Amino acid sequence: METLTEPAVIDQMTPIPFKVQSVREELSHTFTLELEPPNGDFSFQPGQFTMLYAFGIGEVPISISSSATRETTLLQTIRRTGAVTHALGTLKSGDYVGIRGPYGRPWPMKEAKGRDLLIIGGGIGLAPLRPAIYHALENRADYERVVVLYGTRTPDDILFETELRRWGDRTDITTLITVDAADRGWYGAVGVVTRLIGRVGFDPLNTTAMVCGPEIMMTVTAERLMEGYAVAPENIYVTMERNMKCGIGVCGHCQFGSKFICTDGAVFSYKEVGHLFDIKGV
Amino acid sequence: MSEMYVSGQSGIGRLIQALAERGHRVIGPVVRNKALVYDEINGVEDLPKGWTDLQEPGRYRLEQRGDEKLFGYVVGSASWKQFLNPPETVLWSGTINPEGFMTDPAPEPPKYAFFGVRPCEVAALGVLDKVYATSNGLPSMAGYSAIREQAFIVAVNCVEPGGNCFCVSMDTGPTARGGHDIVITEIAHNGNMRYLIESGTAAGAEVLDGMANLEEPTKSEIEARDYFLTEAAAAMGRTLEVDGLPELLKGNARNPRWDSIADRCLACANCTMVCPTCFCNTVDDNLSLDGTHATRTRKWDSCFTLGFSYMHGRPMREGIGARYRQWITHKLATWVDQFEEMGCVGCGRCITWCPVGIDITQEAAAIRRADLRDTPIGIGGFV
Amino acid sequence: MDIDTLMTTLGEQSFFAGLRPEHMVVLASTAEEVEYGGGVEIFEEGGHADAAYLILEGAVALELHVSHRAHHIVQTLHEGEVLGWGWLFPPHRWSFSARTLEPTKVVRFDAVQLRAAWDSDCELGYEMMKRFAEVMTSRLKATRLQLVDFYGNTH
To answer: Are residue A134 and residue A92 in the same domain, yes or no?
Structure first.
């Protein structure tokens, strides 16, 4: 037996141990693992995900929430929903998780150069958008307007609230937050996230929208952008989620029509997958 | 340039021997528990001489043929994928310690010779090769690739198709289309069982070159081979109209016909288990009682199970109709988008082993008869 | 404020886009511009609905008084949005309270004059009803989506 920091056999199903540096509780049920790559290096593009392995318990696809350039550790923001995510939630600093990846097609940061960026997140869907937002801020001159719209359930459910507030204070990025329900004492917007779209300026013909959230949130947002503003479906990007066992296109679980979400996505243009949302049980 | 020889049954025995001598574990057809299965063979005497398998929708039984044929059956009950991607494989096991994970050594991949692979099954190996090829520039299924690379393929052309066969529709048989190292055609000629043996690769030719007592085939033996294979092509048990089929299925996602299939389909997953190309799998994780040693096991999975599409507390494909639609649409339509060919080779196993006899060819034909693409219901779909 | 300035102000609002000038005059004649500080109640749930509003600047929360949680914010309205339709139909009462979240500037239309103007000029009335119906439909749709609770925890 040998200790592995790098795989002896190049087999994509072998998890690589990453040390947990810290665990941060973000919201109730949601936490962020800060992970240390074994040789200090882990390169990825905004929008990619990893297969995150809780030793002996199982593996789940989790999108990367760290900035590709400003953070040297790998951040993965996770909601406790099942056995594996609950097990990951009990880890402490110094423990190990297994990582495979990064996998998947990233957000179209390169293709969106010279265009307005409309970044729309819902709930924990802000996590995969965080690397894209930092990429835009670090390469600010590459883009025209940069707008972040965020919707969540209540004022207590705002992910990365400190950062959202910090972006809100900047002049080179527009940030609006809305919640579905609030009591007096909340001075922000209340209403479905699509209602924020009308409050910001962007050029619909020169806009790339990146939308991440629950499936219904992404469909109503995409429909609103297309019907209300004539943003073309090929310029609206969403990120899909399905049961996944391999992340590399061989387990068959994540098929969505002709697509393997893990290798063809998880980021798709609405033109590629929009029609599939209308069919039950795809 | 392929080499062609002819021999009697003793030549078949010598070929099995030659492969064993080259270090191959030779797997071939054997009769076991009243079924024809693929398992280790040591000589010609292990082959199912004089047996055949009657196959109909939801029906299978072995019968004595009353002749001496070694390959007078249709196809094994389970396919060759069981050797390349076993129903259960340990993917990874290891121990956790303060420095990370210590990986257990992995076993050496077995070196197989597959003996008696039907042309549709050779085609199925090609289909699986594409699915399990590479991802991110690395092998997706290292275990599969390691076994596959070393496997020697002896195909056997089909001169007697079965009742559920439709390889002609899928253009995979009854004559092997390539992908084999050696191909055999069994013919009854002038009262004798004769075996035309051809090489398909240099490795195949090398094996044949090393064998003694192989004869040159006569012109009439070659003519007999061609005659039988032409006759076989005309004797398919079933037909699948593939013209325009991908668009047809993708455009009929809302067809009520899926509900009628759901009324019959038991979602037992038999079709996917016996299918030579169904590749879906899941991973099962196990942890030792002291929490230090973990094993990750890959297991066959099926899109017919409720758990297959489970996410965030519920299955995405709740109804059986949605699951059958996924299976057949994948096989015959979306597979083409993914891998530039259909995921069906026409072996007929899914029809035979369906407990209620659901027939993929009939279901595709039913959708074609009830095509709703030009109606308001048909708008959208998978297209 | 003179009527010309008001007409210019209204003309900049997409809600009034494409209205005929003579109709704009009628509408402007029922209107006045009003400014509120932050945290001011513009109208109160159950109160007499005597005006329609269009928000020029600022933000307004629509609140529902729910006994066990004091004031529940149902929705917030922002620049360019119309506020209130309780004045349209009898008994002319507000279903929600409207409270400013920040200093807010609105155009206030007198309900009695507005109803009279629409009744006497059916073309104007129909045109305005269409615009209000569209706003109501989109607010209803947005409210339904809020009800879905789609970010809701999965357990």
So the answer is: no
Alpha-carbon span C104 to B331, nearest angstrom = 61
Write out pLDDT tens, residues C73-129: 999 999 999 999 999 999 999 999 999 999 999 999 999 999 999 999 999 999 999
Q: Using the beta-carbon criterion (under 8 Å), do C150 and A214 form an inter-chain contact?
A: yes
A178, A179, A180, A200, best to mutate vs chain C, most C CBs in 10 Å: A180
Rounded distance, CA B322 to CA B356, Å? 18
Whether the CB of A189 is below 8 Å from some CB of chain C: the reply is: yes
Chain B CB contacts of A1 under 8 Å are: 95, 102-105
User: Under an 8 Å CB criterion, which residues of C touch B?
Assistant: 154-155
- Tell whether A11 is covered by a domain: no
Sorted by where each begins, the domain ranges of chain B are 4-233, 245-378
C-alpha dist (Å) from residue B223 to A209, B197, B298, C144 = 66, 14, 47, 75
For A56, the closest of B102, B287, B338 (CB atoms) is: B287
Q: Residue B165 in contact with residue B346, Cβ under 8 Å?
A: yes
| A37: nearest CA partner in chain B | B100
Question: Residue A6: its pLDDT value, please?
Answer: 43
Alpha helices per DSSP H over B6-155:
9-21, 81-84, 119-131, 142-150
Domain shared by A152 and A52, yes or no: no
pLDDT one-digit tens code per residue, B193-241 = 999 999 999 999 999 999 988 999 999 999 999 999 999 999 999 999 9
Q: Are both A208 and A121 inside the same structural domain?
A: yes
Supply the CATH number for residue A206's domain.
Answer: 3.40.50.80
In a domain, A272, yes or no: yes
Q: pLDDT tens-digit profile of A95-154?
A: 999 999 999 999 999 999 999 999 999 999 999 999 999 999 999 999 999 999 999 999
Query: Is C30 in contact with C119 (CB distance < 8 Å)?
Result: no
ipTM: 0.92
Contact A4 B100 (CB under 8 A): yes
Return the residue matching tokens 């619909």: A204
Nearest to C153 among A29, A182, A195 (CB): A29
**Same domain for A30 and A126?**
no
C3-148, which class in CATH? mainly beta
Please indicate, yes or no, if residue A240 is contained in any of the structural domains. yes
